[in-house]
Amino acid sequence: MGSYNKDIGSLGEEISENFLIESGYTILERNFRCKTGEIDLIARDGDYICFIEVKTRCGDLFGSPCEAVNYSKQQKISRTAQMYILKKKLYKFCFRFDVIEVILNKENCSSSIKLIKNAFEA
User: Which helix (H) or strand (E) holds 62?
Assistant: First the structure.
């Protein structure tokens, strides 16, 4: 089951990355990891550096994917973003935390994607 979920997550990140590029974002990092956690995608959108959590599901049986980005997860993403900002010396930029929901439909091999800008505050 763990490997299956990892595969679903990787597919969702790939779909999200392509969506962001098509939407004019510049991808800076994928799967940035440090001691405080991981951020799925880091991208630039105009003057903003966006820290993006991707949540992928097969159908919406268990609620909307963004509901999985609870307060604890938000804090972890925020701390990891601070480490990235320090490491890359990105002090002059504005920052934003976005969530992308990807719903996969296995029946017709399609997906739907929803970008939630400013999904939470740091």
Answer: none
Kindly report the pTM of this predicted structure.
0.90
Contact 66, 22 (CB under 8 A): no
Q: How many Cβ atoms sit within 10 Å of the Cβ of residue 102?
A: 23
Taking the domain 2-116, which CATH number applies?
3.40.1350.10
Strands 48-58 and 94-105: parallel
Average pLDDT value over all residues in the chain: 90
CA distance 18 to 12: 10
Q: What share of the chain is helix, strand, coil (3-state, %, to 5)?
A: 35, 40, 25
Q: Report DSSP letters for 13-53, one per residue.
A: HHHHHHHHHHTT-EEEEEEEEETTEEEEEEEEETTEEEEEE
CA distance 21 to 3: 27
Q: How confident is the model at residue 66 (pLDDT cuts 50, 70, 90)?
A: confident
